Fold these 2 entries.
Entry 1:
Amino acid sequence: MNHLGAGLVSIRLLSLILAPLFFASLIPIIDSAFAQEQAINRRVEIWALFYRLMTAAFIVGAIVQGVMLFVVVRFREKKPKQQEVVS
Amino acid sequence: MGHAMIEWVYIAAVTAILIWVGADSWVIEKHIDEIPEDAETIKVTAQQWFWTFEHEDGKKEVGELHLKAGKAYRFEVTSKDVNHAFNVPFYTAMIDAVPGRINKVWFEADQIGEFLIQCREYCGLLHSQMRAKLIVEA
């Protein structure tokens, strides 16, 4: 393990998490390739996409905030001296 | 679990969501850019500060546009003077009206009623009054 903890195990785990999600993201593309041509309701499609993207944006925001909080708390717990107020 | 596993999981999750967002957006954009072959063409001309619409049969309308519900329309948009933007908020349609260019946008009016057509690019003193009425009939 190096200082980032990115050893072989981490990369394998990362691949395990990423691979199914990556293939899941391809489903709409594959789906559209085999779908029959049909008229779409532009207004409905655009608003549906907007709501999906908003959901994704909030999830990304929550993950980023959560990880930041986790990292900060872990750092403070491991280094009690850092918690002292310097006057 | 490695020392920095949480960071790697975070990177993986965010990357996966962003890939999905990109793929989903690309597919929808591709779908909505495809103008149906049976769409009727309407020539839209913008000028300070009103809209002119010309149907396929040569009929012209100024400040009002009558469409049939359930039918797809392709709008060929241009301008006679400065840059404008043809915008129908209810049907999420918007395209720039640029002198010397013909830009295309389409939509199918699926609801009967009166809707707003407006200019969405600042085009001078009366830009805010550059509106027209879209009337969708059965």
Note: The two ends of chain B are 64 Å apart (CA to CA).
Entry 2:
Amino acid sequence: MKELVMSRDAIVPWLDDLLAGGYEVIGVKKHHGKYRFEKLDKAGEAVLNYDVTLQSPKKFMFPPREDLVSFSGTAARMPVREDKGLIIFGVHPYDIHAITLLDEVFREGQQDPYYLDRRERTTIVGVDVTRPSVNAFSSSMGTATVDTGFDLMLTAIEGSYFVRVGSEKGSRILPTQVVRKPNDAQRAQFHKEQDRAPALFALNKVIPSVKDLPMLLEKNQHHPVWEELEKRCLGCGSCNLVCPTCYCFDVKDEMELDLSGGVRYRTWDGCLLKDFTRVASGEVFRESRAHRNRHRFFRKGKYMMEKYNKPGCVGCGRCTSHCLAEINPVEVFNAIAQKEVQ
Amino acid sequence: MQAVEQVKSPYLPEKATIKSIASLTETERLFTLTLDSGRNLGHTPGQFVEVSLFGIGEGPISISSPPADDNSFELGVRAAGNLTRAMHKLAAGDTLGIRGPFGNGFPVETLMGKDLLFVAGGIGLVPLRSLIKYSLTHRDAFGRILILFGARSPKERLFTDELADWSSRTDVEFLETVDRGDESWKGNVGVITTLFKKISIDPRRTAALIVGPPVMYKYALLEVQAKEVPKQNIWLSLERRMKCGLGKCGHCQINNYYVCQEGPVFTFAQIEDREEAL
């Protein structure tokens, strides 16, 4: 992998050039003390040393609402796609791991042209974490750092950013005038930063190792923790909405006011919501919040891992930050590990 | 930056025309359809399609007919939700959208040579009928054919002409019951499990094929297991909410199974230890 360095002062002029060059650049902006990914109007708005964003950048490839089919009478077609490219600037490693997982989900079996089209048009510029969210536990999930899945990856070293070039797409947007080859000291510092990155998350640690999670969960389908979650969880689905690896969706139709036509669109859905499994007869297949929570944690810790050989949870901690009942995956996994039931 | 080539959407339905509609009961109708493209649907018994009416929505519906040479297929539909109620307002000549067929149907090859024990509860007859009719068309390929059918009341009996036909055939053993009879009903009264004591089977060569409402499975499974049919020779078709039919949207999941892909037909051995399944 090609490795470069650039001065920290070069970031803003670089973003200025990209914006002036007609790219749509998404960056992290600060609002009322919280951070979110959104379109940059000015280079100076971009923040790189944030803790975590409210939503993951998933929303740019898998939008909360996306038209699937537009229809008029009985004639239907796929909506016309935009062909503009997007640069997402400042994505943390755990979110890159989540995007890599979603790439597999939407590529596997029946390919999803909507996601894959947006993904193809997206260039990801990552940045390593310098101050994690208090609820994050990425080191436990093996997602504190990243080696693939980015087009460019920035790591803060003294006075500079160490830049790894992950793809041709990344190479194309490099500020060629200002990047240099790293010297030995800079390389050493980069490796030191990578090595210490997991320790930044170490205060919030899942005790069982990621590879043991599927078997641990399998053995503990009837652990008392699920009944505790029945009492605590409000069934609001906020965890689903902020999760970077949740991709379940509902499909709905919407008519024009004159009833001449309309669109069929998909919209994010959540397995913690009671209606998620309701069929027309009224039957609900996961009635209790205990079962809905178990499904969610099994999906993250077992089903996705078995199918894709990657954890379905990347340890970003967003679900905990947004949960009114302060349900924390770290506590759930640790409760099971500490008191196994057969 | 290049435009990405437009790919065909898996969400675009094919147009299908309703050839005829037959009333089965007060709440169920049978739609006979053909795809406007002339394509044969190419389904196997037990598969389903996503039916759509633009502006109303889309939903999974079991295919009720066996694979046919004339490119037509049948959907038995209960008016239960928004989509199915709107379907009941359609007439012959109207069009609707079809995606599919989807899922795993009954394993026809595996079933050949076996005695078939069909257990159909109410509207469960609709998906099972595709395999029942298939087995009757290829009668010599199978051993005994036993059909147990239970309806809540005489007026909720589906496909009454076919029930009469199965009842009169010498190569089919047909038993039915209703939960509650009425003045005109002369047949068995009681839940479907009461029919099991009237039959004897050879469990070594019997395949049990069970489709009914969720509550029926528990009791019907006890009965077929009491008759010592092995778990891997018991097939069931499970209903779930489905939106995409492509193994993505998540609604149909039973543990790690996507019912729209790995199901809707499962063996009891596959789902026995999955407690959300039944």
Note: Chain A has twelve helices and eleven strands.
